[in-house]
UniProtKB/TrEMBL annotation:
This is TMM79 protein. The gene is Tmem79. The chain crosses the membrane at residues 29-53, 74-97, 103-124, 131-152. One of its GO terms (biological process) is regulated exocytosis. Keywords: Membrane, Transmembrane, Transmembrane helix. The keyword Transmembrane helix applies. GO terms for cellular component: lysosomal membrane; trans-Golgi network membrane.
Amino acid sequence: LCPCLIYGAYIFLPFDAPLLPTVSARLVYTLRCAAFATFPVVLGMIVSGISRLCSSALEPFGELHREVEIHRTYVSQSVHLFILYFFNMAVLATYLPQELLKLIPLLTGLFAISRLIFWMSYAIGRSFRAFGFSMTFLPLLAMLLWNLYGMFVLEPENLLS
């Protein structure tokens, strides 16, 4: 489903990436796009804090209620996945040709939407969370494989430079 969504958005959404000839310009562009990917994480932190305040726990270090635990787990996992996403996206931006830089905001949007889908499905039941997690993890895995391919096959002479 993820490749179909990315391909459809790439073909049908009417925007193009700006001209980014240098690596530093591409990294700044990636950083700006990654700021939008933090939206689900920040939203999860806010909801987690509110649910913790509204819980009826008398001991702050005691056992958490299910609602509080769901939000805390979501925020923790989202922060870890965002770090992996950001570093892979930064490396990906250095290897993509100019005409494919449109993928950077599309992958950012997919990350944000899939984290929100994971959060909603995790709140419904733990058995439903696989769809949202796979929509987050599989594009991340594809980026990692492309980055390794780019580093070791396309440009092995520039691996450490």
